[in-house]
Every structure is written in C-alpha cells, then in structure tokens.
Amino acid sequence: MSISVHSSAITTNLTTTVSYLSKTSTRSFPRRRIGSVNCSMEMTTETDRLVKLKNGNDSIEICRVINGMWQTSGGWGKIDQNAAVEAMIRYADADLSTFDLADIYGPAEDIYGIFINKVRRERPPEYLEKVKGLTKWVPRPGKMTRSYVRESIDVSRKRMDVASLDMLQFHWWDYANDGYLDALKHLTDLKDEGKIKTVALTNFDTERLEKILENGIPVVSNQVMFELHLPFFFSSCKFLCSCGYSLQVQHSIVDMRPQQRMAQLCELTGVKLITYGTVMGGLLSEKFLNANLAIPFAGPSLNTPSLQKYKRMVDAWGGWNLFQGLLRTMKSIATKHGVSIPTVAVRYVLDQPGVGGSMIGVRLGLAEHIQDADAIFSLVLDDEDVNSIQEVTKKGKNLLQVIGDCGDEYRG
User: Fold this and answer.
1) What is the tens place of the pLDDT at every residue in 100-129?
2) How many domains does the structure of the chain reveal?
3) Residue 45: is its pLDDT beyond 80?
4) Does residue 315 lie in a domain region?
C-alpha cells in the first residue's frame, strides 16, 4: 500500500526568506517571487525500500539505497566490464535498482548501457521499470550551442543505451562564463523532446540558482557534492534548490552538518536529501574496528581516494581514538541486531529528518555488499541505540564550526 508522506509546508512560496548562520555572521537571502514548490515523498513499500519523489507533474521512483558508481572512475581497482555488469544484475535482482553515475566517471555510462541492454533481454518489462540511471553532464565551459548540447546528451544516451535519460544532472565549472544558462535552456528543450525525463543541477550556488530560476528554466534538483580538498567542487549546501524535490549531500554519523541547517530548509520546501559518504568510504565498518593506523602496515591501508578523504574528516572531527569509540559502540548495536556496522551507519542516516535516500559506493566485480544493504530496510534502531551513538558523537567537534557549512571549505 502506498503511504504518502508530506512536508509540513508542501506548498511554499519562494518569496520566503531563507536565513542561515555563516562562519562569522548571520545572513539572509530574500527570495524573489518565482513560483511555488509542491514536493512530496511517498514510501511505496511497507519496508520503505522505494521512494517516489514528486514535484508538480514530474516524479521519479528510486530505491532508498542507491548504488554509487564513482568507483568505476579509477583508484579503487581495475574494473572488469563483464564482471561489473553481472554485479549490477545481482544488485538489481536484490531490488537495489537505482544507480548514480556521470559522463566523467570513466566507463560508468558504458557499463550501465551494457547492463540495461542485458536487463531488456533477460528480465521482464516490469523489472526494467524499476531500474533507474541518474547521470551527470560535466562539460568544459565554453559556447553552449544547441547542437553541442544535443550532441553531448546524445553521447550519454548512446553510451547508456536509452532513448531518454531518467535524470540528467548538470554541472558547470566556471561562473565567470554564463554559458550555463544557454546549456540549461537547451537541456530543457531536450526534456520537452523526450530525450531527458528530468533535468537537475549539481554544484550550483544560490546566486546562479536564482539566476537560472529567473530565466524560467525548470530544474528538479540541485545535487551538492563537496569533496574535501578538491577545490574545483566549490558549491555550498546553503542553497537548496527551492523548485526541486531532491538534493544530494554528504552526510554520515560523523558529518551531521546537513541536519544543522539544511534539514530545516528541506522541511520548509518539501525537498528531500539524497546522502552520500554515509559509510565514509568503508571507514565505518568492521574492517577498521580496533585498527592501529599509527604503525605502518599494522592495519588496513587507506588505499582508495574515499578512505583518504574520510580519514581527513575523522581527523577534523575528533581523531582516530574517538572514532574507534564510535566503531565499538556501533559494533555493539550491530551485534544486538545481527547486522553489520555499515548497515547501522546507513539506517541511522536514513532515519534523520528530510532524508529520502542514501548512496553506497559499489566496487562492481571487486566487492559486494548486497546482504548488508538489504538488511538496512528491516533494521529498526531503538532509542537506546540512538542515544548510545549520540553519547559518542557529541564528544566530537562540530564540523560546521571546523570546516564550515557544506562547501565552505572551498572558500578562502
């Protein structure tokens, strides 16, 4: 039975003033009258496995646990194409059927294309309807002609072997070049032609977002990716896409910044968070429990970009000793429920206000965590579990004060 879950302010006029506390002062951004938000979220199964995100006439149904394919881009081990496709089939067979990818994630779109074609041949039509591929287009800034945009999107459609992209998330590197407005207008035209089902943004700030809306360009979400120490991802999660229904943010038990400001804005607009970094690249796992990283080669190595990135976040939060205390607490909870530490980590974040789904990176053909992911849907954390986690996390530093709001680490 479909259960409809609506924000307390489903329909919100964009003249609302959105206030937030910056690093040093309180600021507010008056919104111009642009339109209204009519967002909602429906849990479509009793186990909350699927969620339908709606905005006006647009909607998309996704799995609440999303398979992230950044790992295909290199740095996590060599990907065998055939093994990766077979792994994707196993994930989809387990009803983990939503995949996040990009044109710049190495062979991700090509692998998805082989996968979806195999699904068409070997699975029934209703199975195909469940599968979603959310991709990104990240062009070099320059003149955005209609033909160039069309050709670029056609490349993704060809690589992914689909007539229409489920979601196209657009990123722009250089705000000094306002060609992004032309690109988005052309993308909107392609949506009207049926080549794209939903147009979204990734890494746009408030000023540019408002400019986009003022130009009458409809977007369904603004994906915020803020990788530590990668200055070219310079956007901030202070700016919720007020006309959208989902926003992708980094969010874990250690990094609770989205709950300090963003969740309130999500409640106001009805927009839902899609989180990533939830298991911190694997740091939140039994593998790193009781690991001594101070002695070379004594423990597991930080041998992927994700592990190195999130170890820096642990250092900023409170250090390795405090993190070990968190892992021990989570292991106790995991043992109590017969699950793993990563399962507890994702469930905790899914239970936070405003969260619609969480992304878990998949090393296709190299490692598999289907059982852990599936257990997330049946796990129920009780008050004792939540309180014991918070007893540890409150000892850590407030990353909002240490790093700043989401994306502030890219500002000098």
Assistant:
1) 999 999 999 999 999 999 999 999 999 999
2) 1
3) no
4) no
- Give the SS3 label for residue 13: strand
Residue 373 lies in a domain: yes
What is the model's pLDDT at position 1? 33
Which DSSP string do the residues of 170-204 spell out, in sequence order?
A: E--S-TTSTHHHHHHHHHHHHHHTTSBS-EEEES-
Q: Report if residue 312 sits inside a domain.
A: no
Most confident of 70-84, 345-359, 383-397: 383-397
Q: Is 396 a member of any domain?
A: no
Per-residue confidence band for 171, with pLDDT thresholds at 50, 70 and 90: confident
- In angstroms, the Cα distances linking 259 to 15, 204, 385 are 23, 20, 19
**Residue written as token pair 């302010």:** 9
Other beta carbons less than 10 A from residue 147's beta carbon: 8
d(CA 178, CA 103) in angstroms, rounded, equals 21
Q: What is the dihedral of CA 178, 181, 187, 193, to 10 degrees?
A: -140
The range of the structural domain enclosing residue 117 comes to 39-281+339-381
CA dist., res. 39 & res. 51, Å (int): 13
pLDDT above 80 (res 214): no
Contact 232, 239 (CB under 8 A): no
Q: Are strands 199-202 and 11-13 parallel, antiparallel or unpaired?
A: unpaired
CATH at 159: 3.20.20.100
Please name the helix (run of DSSP H) or strand (run of DSSP E) that holds residue 30, with its range, or none: none
What would the 3-class secondary structure string for 100-163 be?
A: ECCCCCCCHHHHHHHHHHHHHHHCCHHHHHHCEEEEEECCCCCCCCHHHHHHHHHHHHHHHCCC
CB atoms within 10 A of CB 302: 18
HSE-up (13 A, CA, CB side) for residue 383: 0
How crowded is residue 172: how many other Cβ atoms within 10 Å of its Cβ?
24
Torsion of CA 364, 369, 370, 371, to 10 degrees: 160
In degrees and rounded to multiples of 5, residue 58 shows phi and psi of -90, 140
